[in-house]
Design a protein that fits this description.
The chain has two domains: 87 residues, no CATH class; 69 residues, 2-Layer Sandwich (Alpha-Beta Plaits), CATH 3.30.70. The longest helix has 20 residues. The protein has a three-stranded mixed beta sheet with strand order 1-2-3. Strands 7-4-8 form a three-stranded antiparallel beta sheet, with helices on one face. Strands 5-6 form a two-stranded antiparallel sheet. The protein is 40% helix and 22% strand. The chain has 177 residues and is of the alpha+beta class. The radius of gyration is 18 Å and the shape is globular.
């Protein structure tokens, strides 16, 4: 029978503090939307009627802590960077890329369309996808996007880098959409 040991409370608290500081640094140094989407991907949805906003953070580092602790880390990160905004966060959700796909946060993806005989090394295409922000998932390489525009921008960069179009933008539908 396997033995599963959970992290001690002090180790978990230390890891949460580290993740909070990393996320705060990302919030301070948010990048231009024209560049590849690298994790963490931070999605903010402002709610004008209440002057509040919802935040979803897509990040593979979430695998290290329980899902129930992720929202606290997000709010802590906002408190470090902009305390006045942290008070306005009404929903904070942390998800890995696969979880984000499952709940519809990354409805668009780029997939490789390489065929046998194409004059390109598959490893080259894999590296190009990783450079765009792809991560390993249970079904292979995952390059997901929150919007069609972000996916199309990445598609253009990939096509330019590979000198050919070995890619397709696909829209994933969840059961609720």
């Amino acid at each position: 029978m396997p033995l599963i040991r959970s992290k001690s409370a002090s180790n978990l608290a230390q890891l949460e503090a580290e993740l909070s500081h990393e996320l705060a640094a990302e919030l301070k140094n948010s990048v231009d939307a024209d560049k590849p989407l690298r994790q963490p991907i931070i999605l903010e949805n402002e709610i004008p009627q209440t002057s509040s906003f919802h935040v979803a953070v897509i990040w593979e580092r979430w695998r290290q802590i329980p899902a129930s602790h992720r929202s606290g880390v997000i709010v802590q990160a906002y408190a470090q960077v902009a305390p006045q905004r942290a008070d306005r966060v009404t929903i904070a959700l942390g998800a890995t890329a696969e979880e984000a796909v499952d709940i519809g946060l990354l409805p668009f993806a780029i997939v490789s369309t390489i065929k046998n005989g194409d004059p390109v090394e598959p490893q080259r295409l894999t590296q190009l996808m990783r450079d765009e922000g792809a991560v390993e998932s249970s079904t292979g390489l995952l390059l997901g996007f929150p919007s069609r525009d972000a996916a199309l921008a990445a598609y253009e960069r990939l096509a330019h880098q590979s000198k050919r179009e070995y890619w397709a933008v696909v829209e994933r539908r969840t059961q609720n959409s």
